């Protein structure tokens, strides 16, 4: 598939064109799709299969749908942006590889001490977003080479065909949409401008409520994975950020069992193993590591510190008016009413 240099793509008004290449197929597709001006960007997001993507992510969707075929042993962390992705990636990696890094000698060499979690569980979104439509995924295997550890922000819809013929497992975490929105706003504002005062919270709020943001509607995204978890509980582990914060030990034990790497009776009886893992993956510990304070993610070209802000529950009250909170709660109640899902 021939790639098109960025200078030939400037007329599409995409910011990514300054340093990315796109296939002719992507360019043709973009020209045919509904588009909206992206918040705090000079380019657009595009509606594809009922969700919204930037041009780079859209190329990733197309390439992934065509070329990614899940293995039975694949483990995929799936999240809407800013719902606890970094924490969940760290937990999954540590659970699966804990025997390899469990001795006193190897603890100091744990990959999380020198690598941001996003490097240890790479996004399918990024792996497939280049002009190489079929990237090599062998580097994604766990230390014991038993599982490929992957992640995605993509909704379930574009992923469904890729996983339907396998027994791969999905680990999904969602969060109160009010906190999700505030964290999303901070994240995008931080990577696009240094001054939050120039970033209209109200403007992004309107787009978020309407679902016209990167990766589409929060509520539709959550519902896709929630409904699959009800239909195939052995395939989808559905977790809420607030529940994980309230009872981390309980949910990490359940997560380990789902991943196929349960804690042994000896590990649980001796005590300390789960607590040690939670401490390793905690916000305070990860955010203060040198790699996360001053490191940079080469694919996204942003600082690792961007992924660590506060990690608290209920922070939205410091940013949203009562009317804004009421509107988000109303949308959530209406969207989830028929599906038995309550967040918080």
From TrEMBL:
UniProt entry tagged with the keyword Ribonucleoprotein: no
Top-level class of the enzyme under EC nomenclature: transferase
Keywords of the record: Transferase
Record's protein name: Sulfotransferase
Positions of the Sulfotransferase domain: 72-338
EC code(s) of this entry: 2.8.2.-
GO MF, any single term: sulfotransferase activity
Family: Belongs to the sulfotransferase 1 family.
Family annotation (SUPFAM superfamilies): P-loop containing nucleoside triphosphate hydrolases
Family annotation (Pfam families): Sulfotransfer_1
């Amino acid at each position: 598939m021939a790639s098109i240099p960025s200078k030939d793509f400037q007329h599409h008004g995409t910011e990514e064109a300054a340093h990315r290449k796109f296939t002719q197929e992507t360019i043709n597709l973009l020209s045919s799709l509904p588009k909206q001006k992206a918040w705090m960007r000079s380019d657009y997001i595009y509606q594809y299969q009922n969700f919204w993507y930037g041009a780079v992510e859209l190329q990733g969707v197309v390439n992934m749908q065509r070329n990614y075929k899940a293995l039975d042993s694949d483990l995929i962390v799936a999240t809407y942006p800013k719902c606890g992705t970094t924490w969940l990636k760290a937990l999954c990696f540590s659970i699966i590889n804990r025997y390899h890094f469990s001795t006193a000698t190897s603890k100091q060499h744990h990959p999380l001490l020198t690598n941001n979690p996003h490097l240890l569980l790479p996004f399918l979104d990024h792996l497939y977003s280049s002009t190489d439509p079929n990237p090599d995924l062998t580097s994604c295997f766990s230390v014991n080479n038993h599982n490929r550890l992957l992640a995605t922000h993509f909704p379930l819809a574009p992923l469904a065909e890729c996983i339907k013929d396998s027994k791969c497992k999905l680990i999904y975490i969602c969060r109160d949409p009010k906190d999700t929105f505030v964290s999303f706003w901070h994240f995008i504002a931080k990577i696009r401008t240094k001054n939050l005062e120039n970033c209209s919270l109200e403007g992004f709020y309107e787009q978020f409520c309407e679902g016209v943001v990167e990766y589409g509607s929060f509520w539709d995204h959550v519902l896709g994975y929630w409904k699959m978890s009800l239909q195939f509980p052995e395939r989808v582990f559905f977790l809420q950020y607030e529940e994980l914060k309230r009872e981390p030990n309980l949910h990490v034990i359940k997560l380990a069992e789902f991943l196929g790497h349960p804690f042994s009776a000896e590990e649980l009886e001796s005590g300390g193993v789960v607590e040690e893992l939670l401490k390793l993956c905690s916000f305070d510990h990860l955010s203060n590591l040198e790699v996360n304070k001053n490191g940079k993610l080469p694919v996204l070209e942003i600082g690792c510190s961007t992924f660590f802000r506060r990690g608290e529950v209920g922070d939205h009250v410091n940013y949203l008016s009562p009317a804004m909170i009421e509107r988000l709660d109303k949308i959530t109640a209406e969207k989830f009413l028929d599906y038995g899902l309550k967040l918080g």
